[in-house]
Design brief:
Helix content: over 70%
Number of strands: 0
Order of helices and strands: HHHHHH
Strand content: under 5%
Number of domains: 1
Largest sheet: none
Radius of gyration: 20 Å
Shape: flat
């Protein structure tokens, strides 16, 4: 018979971390939903798939953003806290940029494969080429 303490009953996909509160778990799950919805909204308003993908990829750096500002707030040595905050911000931005680059390239290929054949004049009208350029711009601006 299963009890409430049985791992099969309480397994929600997260490791058993006693320091993670149920509120934190809920907010972590909601961040995926909110950023996916925001990414879709940005894509829908701009008709540019790369922007939507870039907004969605903000989730991949969210934990390091939170860690950076937590360190800035709680470290008793202010200089060390500031330097570690900058380090974690740089790592989170790098993580967001690289995941956005990978997902933009993937979405560009999907958009190119499923878009109806349209007469194109030159390389500038090619949607795959435009998405590749946009992915490159995101990486350049981010770094």
């Amino acid at each position: 018979m299963l009890s409430m303490n049985d791992p099969a009953v309480i397994d929600d996909g997260f490791p058993d971390d006693s320091w993670v509160s149920p509120r934190e778990r809920f907010l972590g799950r909601m961040a995926w939903v909110i950023l996916a919805g925001l990414g879709f909204l940005v894509f829908d308003l701009t008709a540019h798939p790369s922007l939507g993908v870039a907004v969605f990829c903000l989730k991949f750096g969210l934990d390091r953003f939170k860690t950076a500002f937590w360190l800035l707030r709680t470290d008793p040595i202010r200089r060390r806290g500031f330097v570690l905050c900058l380090f974690h911000l740089a790592r989170s931005i790098s993580r967001v940029i690289m995941s956005a680059f990978i997902f933009i390239i993937g979405s560009a290929i999907v958009v190119y494969l499923f878009r109806q054949a349209q007469p194109m004049k030159g390389l500038a009208r090619n949607p795959l080429f435009q998405e590749m350029h946009f992915a490159g711009y995101i990486v350049l601006i981010g770094y």
